[in-house]
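Narrative of accomplishments. A recurring question from our advisory board has been how the design workflow behaves on a single, concrete structure rather than in aggregate. To address it, we present the structure tokens for one chain from the evaluation set, followed by the sequence designed for it. No filtering or post-editing was applied between the two.
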């Protein structure tokens, strides 16, 4: 198979996987009464972090992450506290309700995940290949 055929096939498959994963996140968001971006933010808030760190994890602009955080804060799912070592930054911490909603989101994301049909070693191999492409 020619290199351009492989490139085309890989691009098509990755694009299809991205659409499938996006649809899965949207279904989870609908069930939780959240937006897909809010679900992704909750997934990434496994520990106290800054908005800048969250933006990097979500692969979005800091202003977009701040908008998502504002909506989650309005819903009582997180609080912002002074950062312990950086006076200019705020640390984002999930509330008890936010932790519960995060746990439910993680459950739903795991249920019927498009990657669920792969063995763990296959999921790890896929992750490693995608990381290599992103480097």
């Amino acid at each position: 198979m020619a290199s351009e055929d492989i490139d085309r096939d890989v691009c098509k498959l990755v694009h299809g996987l991205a659409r499938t994963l996006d649809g899965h996140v949207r279904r989870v968001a609908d069930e939780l009464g959240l937006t897909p971006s809010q679900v992704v933010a909750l997934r990434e808030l496994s520990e106290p972090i800054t908005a800048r760190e969250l933006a990097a994890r979500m692969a979005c602009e800091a202003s977009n992450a701040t908008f998502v955080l504002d909506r989650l804060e309005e819903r009582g799912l997180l609080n912002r506290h002074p950062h312990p070592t950086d006076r200019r930054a705020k640390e984002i911490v999930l509330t008890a309700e936010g932790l519960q909603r995060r746990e439910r989101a993680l459950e739903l994301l795991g249920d019927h995940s498009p990657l669920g049909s792969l063995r763990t070693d296959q999921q790890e191999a896929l992750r490693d290949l995608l990381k290599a492409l992103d480097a």
